[in-house]
């Protein structure tokens, strides 16, 4: 949960960040096809394109970090690429829910993020705002903001 404060009469713009959540991370024992992209579970600055489809090993491979290098993984062969966001799903929808007393003035998908502008609230009160992101792959991710209103 993230926390922010705002004055009673002001608006606040907040960016819910989903970049890490929507990354396609490598999984053991998974069937991959040519053209799939993954990132290692522990980011290393690279992403990997499936050059030869098949089933990944049960143990994570030693990722090759030479550009255009190959990593053997079970029957899958990965090609190293500089990280540029190919191994990410796309946010295609969102639902913003705010406690009574808070108004969602605007909300928009901004790449890997969802930006909202909020107003309202009573000084001394806390309000929860939930942001649910839906992706092209049908996944849903939720982030929560606790907003405290000051004088």
Uncertain stretches of 5 or more adjacent residues: none
Proportion of residues in helical segments: under 10%
Q: Measured on Cα atoms, how large is the radius of gyration? A: 20 Å
General form: elongated
CATH uppermost class of the largest domain? Mainly Beta
Number of E-type strands: 13
Major sheet details? 4 strands, mixed
Distance between the termini: 23 Å
- Mean pLDDT rating: 93
CATH architecture of the largest domain: Sandwich
* CATH homology superfamily name of the largest domain: Immunoglobulins
The secondary-structure element order is EEEEEEEEEEEEE
The strand order across the widest sheet is: 1-13-12-9
Can you tell me the CATH topology of the largest domain? Immunoglobulin-like
Main structural class: mainly beta
Strand content: over 45%
Explain what this protein looks like in three dimensions.
The protein is elongated. A hairpin with a 7-residue loop joins strand 4 (37-38) and strand 5 (46-52). It folds into two domains: 2-19 and 90-150, Immunoglobulin-like (Sandwich), CATH 2.60.40; 31-82, no CATH class. By secondary structure, the chain is mostly beta strands. It is 0% helix and 54% strand. A four-stranded mixed sheet has the order 1-13-12-9, with no helix packed on it. It has a four-stranded antiparallel sheet with strand order 4-5-8-7, with no helix packed on it.
């Amino acid at each position: 949960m993230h926390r922010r404060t705002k004055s009673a009469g002001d608006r606040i713009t907040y960016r819910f960040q989903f970049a890490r959540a929507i990354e396609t991370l490598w999984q053991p024992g998974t069937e991959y096809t040519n053209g799939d992209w993954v990132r290692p579970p522990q980011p290393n600055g690279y992403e990997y394109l499936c050059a030869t489809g098949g089933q990944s090993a049960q143990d994570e491979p030693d990722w090759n970090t030479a550009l255009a290098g190959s990593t053997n993984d079970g029957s899958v062969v990965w090609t190293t690429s500089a990280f540029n966001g190919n191994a990410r799903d796309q946010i295609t929808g969102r639902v913003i829910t705010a406690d009574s007393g808070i108004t969602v003035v605007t909300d928009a998908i901004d790449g890997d993020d969802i930006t909202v502008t909020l107003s309202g609230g009573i000084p001394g009160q806390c309000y929860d705002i939930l942001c649910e992101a839906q992706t092209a792959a049908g996944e849903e991710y939720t982030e929560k903001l606790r907003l405290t209103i000051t004088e």
